Amino acid sequence: MFGRKAPGVLLRLLALGLTGWLLGTSLALAAPEVPPLLPDPIQDISSTPLTEAEREELDATLASLRGPVRYKILIIDSSKPQGLEEYLEAVWSEWRLPNDTVLLVVARQDGNAIRFYLGGEAGRHGITVDSALAAIRQHYAPAVREGGLAAGLKALVAELHRQATGEAPVPDEPEAAADPGPGDWRRWLRWPLPSLPRLELPDWQLPDFQLPDWKLPDWQLPPSLVPPLPLPRVNLLDPRLPLWLGAGGLGCIGYSLLRYALALRRWQQGP
User: Fold this and answer.
1) Distance CA 154, CA 104 (A)
2) 42 forms bridges with which residues in the sheet?
3) From 25-29, 100-104, 115-119, the region with the lowest mean pLDDT
4) What domains appear along the chain, each with residue ranges and CATH number?
5) β 70-76/42-44 pair status
6) Residue 271 in 3-state DSSP?
7) Which strand (E) or helix (H) includes residue 157?
């Protein structure tokens, strides 16, 4: 089939298959194993685990959440040479978590990189892939830079809980205003104003007297000075009423145009 080159082609195919098998075996051996599932919501198997105070604070935050979604956090050193997404898939397949769980996997040695897996029920309660990515960018990453991994996970879980339940996050207590210095004009605003004395006005009462009962004379005009005016009666339901009103309006317009034409003619003739 291959002619004289058959032995060389077979040897090359055999060498290529052996190389691929050795490479796959080495990657499988080098990839971190999936740890056994524990009942705790946080499994930290990294070489730099969270402190006891950080762990207790994060546990308290997870325990205080009451909603349709539960959370599972796994913290490792790194998933290399395997990708963190592939490791996340392996953990989800191995652990077989309930369908209402959000799985978070954090790689400490990869810059606290985080990946998430949404169960089917968790996705139906308002947490989507886009909203979870936005929560990582807007809440997790800034909190990790400012306060560390525990603060980032706490902020991320709180935001995901808000998305699932619609509850607004509890606002932080406002910081106390700094004491202005002696040269600051605002310090004068802090001085208490002197209390003014309470003034009580006397209860003045008008004397009890009655106004005289003035009666105006009943003036009436004589009937001869007020001639009766004949008022025409208008039937508003008469169908000819719009015609009359239209004719009157056209008459007014024609009269105005005639006056304007006469004035224009006198102006053209001059004085």
Assistant:
1) 12
2) 73
3) 25-29
4) 42-163 (3.10.310.50)
5) parallel
6) coil
7) helix 149-165
